[in-house]
Specification:
Layout (H helix, E strand, L loop, with lengths): L2 E2 L8 E2 L1 E4 L8 H13 L4 E3 L9 H9 L11 E6 L1 E2 L4 E2 L3 H15 L4 E6 L8 H13 L3 E7 L3 H10 L4 E7 L6 H8 L15 H7 L3 E5 L18 H14 L3 H11 L5 E4 L4 H8 L8 H10 L6
Parallel strand pairs: 3-4, 3-12, 4-5, 5-8, 8-9, 9-10, 10-11, 11-12
Antiparallel strand pairs: 1-2, 6-7
The structure holds NADP nicotinamide-adenine-dinucleotide phosphate.
Length: 309
Amino acid sequence: MKMLNVVNGPQNVSAIVQGCMRMTDLDAQSAAKVIRTAYDEGINFYDHATCYGPDGLAETVFGNAFPLTGIKREDIILQSKCGICNFRGEFDWTKENILESADDILRRLKTDYLDVLLLHRPDVIFEPEEVAAAFDELEAAGKVRHFGMSNLVPLQIELLKKYVKQPLVFNQLQLSLDQAQLIDQPLYMNNMDTDFSINRDGNIMEYCRLKDITIQAWSPLQVGFFKGTFVDNPDFPELNRVLGELAEREGVSKAAIAIAWVLRHPAKMQAIIGTMNPEHVKDACAATNVKLSHHDWYALYLASGRYLP
Ligand SMILES: NC(=O)c1ccc[n+]([C@@H]2O[C@H](COP(=O)([O-])OP(=O)(O)OC[C@H]3O[C@@H](n4cnc5c(N)ncnc54)[C@H](OP(=O)(O)O)[C@@H]3O)[C@@H](O)[C@H]2O)c1
């Protein structure tokens, strides 16, 4: 497993993160198997959110399963996210909601500290002073060690940074060979012939690199928002052809090549995988042994339906 030292953040963390969004349907034994398989493959980082399942069900399943794994709490990084409150039709970054969410997360995960807390999607009427006050309280109480965000554009991060005194060390963003908007826009800039030139995120990739914010690429195998994977999907023949060729050359699965494509990018990102199938977890982890050349990276990008402008 490739390990990373996050600037101002946790050290020696795995480049592949086990996402727990899909853990809601598992019993404790099956969840323990996923957690343990990931750990045995070198993953020491697990991602949660308050909105994964009703009443944080994924966190509850994980909290019940973790004691069955034999893994020590201090040997893993537990991350969760708060702020998405779909059940009451709003995104909420008020101090009250952040503090209450953190306590709920700790109770469900059965731990007394979170390594990382991220603000999930932007509460568009957030008050940065409130976020700062909540983070100060959580840090002082020893409940949260590192902070960050997800799905935020550069100026929202700047606004937060004006008030929040803790380093904001992660930004969790969608990135896959299908959903490569983070990479497309600067390539096609100023080109009226393609929607790839539309700036949808304020150049968040370059901003994060400039500010030493580690990007966590969520859903590295997904098509669209949640339309299933492109791996072995007949709608993506050229992509699967190139994935297949490189998979054969490297002796790994196509999924591993797609994840290796994310990890090959010089931004030194983490990739958050979502499978609950232990065999697929092993497949994914093989990505960190793959050596993609500069040319391989472009070959995959072009096979995904992009072209050189
Ligand atoms: N910040 C955010 O807004 C946000 C949003 C969404 C997700 N996330 C995080 O990202 C994590 C990952 O999301 P995700 O589950 O959408 O990511 P993903 O890993 O890109 O997609 C998982 C899908 O890929 C399939 N898959 C995995 N390995 C495969 C293989 N070897 N061959 C064929 N198919 C394979 C899985 O099928 P099988 O189940 O059959 O393996 C599953 O359907 C979540 O758990 C969550 O932690 C964050």
